[in-house]
Amino acid sequence: ITLLNFPSLILILDNPDGLKKNTILDQIEEANEEDHVDKKVKNIFEADIELTKSDRAGVDTKNQNSKDNADVDVDSVLTKRKAISSRRHLWVTKEVPLELAVSAKDGYNNIRAALGEIQSKSCIRFRMRDKDDDNWIRFVNKSGCFSPVGRQYASPGAQELSIGIGCNHKGIIMHELLHALGFWHEQSRSDRDDFLEVLWENIQKGQEHNFNRYKPKDMDFNGGSYDFSSIMHYGNYAFSKNKRPTMLSVKDPTLQFGQIAKLSPTDVIQLNNVYDCKCE
What does UniProt give as the signal peptide span (predicted)? Predict the structure, then answer.
């Protein structure tokens, strides 16, 4: 595939006194609202992660609903930074086979742009799948935006990355591709409370589990400190029940985050470290 790296967009907060609800994750949350999503699409976690059976064994989907009991013990499934720690879930050859379902053809240009940005900043290479591939990503147009995390080596064949109604945006597609490459959400990091205040009283009832922390045995940062500008970070209003923020920066409560529509510098460092890229 010949991929082009199209210009990216960073949405900048003009008025720091008025936090906005228009982030990548806000768009995903809206696209994945229960009224819109086909009931056949199950096991969606943290708004857009399709959990496999093995994933469900490694994460806790119980609603913890407070800072003190939001820790989740995970046995070597996540790292402190946010990337999956089992190398079996990585695309170990650094080549990722792809397939574009007919239903997703309208997203072709944005898919190309998202793939192009990732290729331009890492050693990951995307190509069309062939008959000898055991695993590949299939872009589909189903209800909502979602992807499993990492290569689904235990289930040979296609793993679906959905760009349904409301999901056909370069930033959203890159976010889902980072999931498929092995990345979880930034605000789930075990050290997040040093940087982030979760306002539990503003979270929709039954959605508290989306703000759980993880306590992995492997505490490797993989080259990245906490990153509010990560494309994998929720916005300030994620899962809000009352139009009030559910998350604020500890140091700067006026900080708008989750706005970025391209890979942050720390995202790039993390991606290259996880995949052992030797970039100049």
Answer: none
